Amino acid sequence: MKNLVEVKNLKKSYDLKEAVRGISFKIKDNEILGLLGPNGSGKTTTIGMMLGLLKPSNGEIIIDGKKIEDNRIEILKKINFISPYIELPKKLTVKQNLIVYGKLYSVPDIKKRIEYLSEKLRLEDLLNRITGELSSGQKNRVSLAKALINNPKVLLLDEPTASLDPEIADFVRTFLENYKKEKKISILLASHNMNEVTRLCKSILMMKDGIIIDSGSPEDLINKHGRQNLEEVFLKLSRNKNEFN
Ligand code: ADP
Ligand code: MG
Q1: How far apart are CA 37 and CA 55, in angstroms?
Q2: Atom of ligand 1 at shortest distance to CA of 41?
Q3: Which of the ligands is closest to the CA of residue 54?
Q4: Which of 20, 67, 91, 228 counts the highest number of beta carbons within 10 A?
Q5: pTM for this entry
Q6: Which residues contact 118 (CB under 8 A, 6 or more apart)?
Q7: Distance from residue 115's CA to the centre of ligand 2 (Å)
């Protein structure tokens, strides 16, 4: 397995605030890396830099062997994302949205790609609906289809199941697991759902105040901190003010 993503000493300051203070990590192909951390720990900022939306104050992001800053267009074609901050255009139908994004990414056979994703994501009955009129669970599945429209090698997911009911959240997790297995892609999953992370991720980064304070598999972290589950590890690490600073 090779490292599809390599992040080296990444930093980001907003005016006076140092949101990300020097983090390094790798994501292999066919791996889902979990990104955990309390609100404000720098997860979304990290993802924003990996998407080329935010310019790092320092450090490097290498995707599929190439630095993002020197190869933006080539790299952006290979990645995609789900973000709670970016909504699909509300007035277009689902199909129109997927066509627009397919064209943005120059997807070769857009119709076939939409058919494939619609079948996998249970979108067939939604294709002609107005996107803004869908339920949040339906919108979420459409966002996932948009995120996969360009057959990305790297998928960045910022809290993808945050607003979903348990059944749809479970559907999305199962879908992601199977899709990753089939396509051997790399996924970065920022999440506050510990069961989700335990289930999907063999490897986890724990962020706090802009740095990585711990990492490892869910079992390693649970054993190391002498806790019963990842939720307890998370609480211990996020409450502890002094141990890591
Ligand atoms: P997370 O996704 O882990 O909740 P964020 O990356 O959103 O964390 O935020 C990290 C820190 O950076 C927070 O303290 C947040 O207030 C700050 N921050 C995020 N975006 C901006 C911005 N555009 N301008 C100033 N500060 C920001
Ligand atoms: Mg965030």
Answers
A1: 22
A2: 3
A3: 1
A4: 20
A5: 0.95
A6: 124, 127, 145
A7: 32
Does position 224 have pLDDT exceeding 90, yes or no? yes
162, amino acid identity = A
- Per DSSP bridges, beta strands 79-82 and 154-158 are parallel
Round to whole Å and give the CA distance between 179 and 71: 27
Provide the pLDDT for residue 245. Answer: 41
- Per-residue confidence (pLDDT) for residue 244, from 0 to 100: 46
3-state SS assignment for residue 20: strand
Between 56 and 85, residue with greater pLDDT: 56
In the chain, % of residues over pLDDT 90: 91
Is the alpha carbon torsion for 226, 231, 235, 238 positive or negative?
A: positive
Q: Which of 216, 221, 148, 160 is nearest to 188 (CA)?
A: 160
Q: Which amino acid makes up residue 151? A: N
* Amino acid occupying residue 134: L
Which residue of 12, 15, 16, 17 sits with most ligand 1 atoms within 8 Å of its CB, as the best mutation to test the pocket?
17
Q: Which fold has domain 1-78+153-245?
A: Rossmann fold (3.40.50)
User: pLDDT band at residue 193, thresholds of 50, 70 and 90?
Assistant: very high
DSSP assignment, residue 18? E
Domain ranges of the chain: 1-78+153-245, 87-151
Burial of 6 (0-12, 13-18, 19+ CB in 10 A): middle
- Cβ < 6 A, ligand 1 pocket: 14, 17, 19, 37, 39-45
Question: How distant is the alpha carbon of residue 241 from its chain centre?
Answer: 27
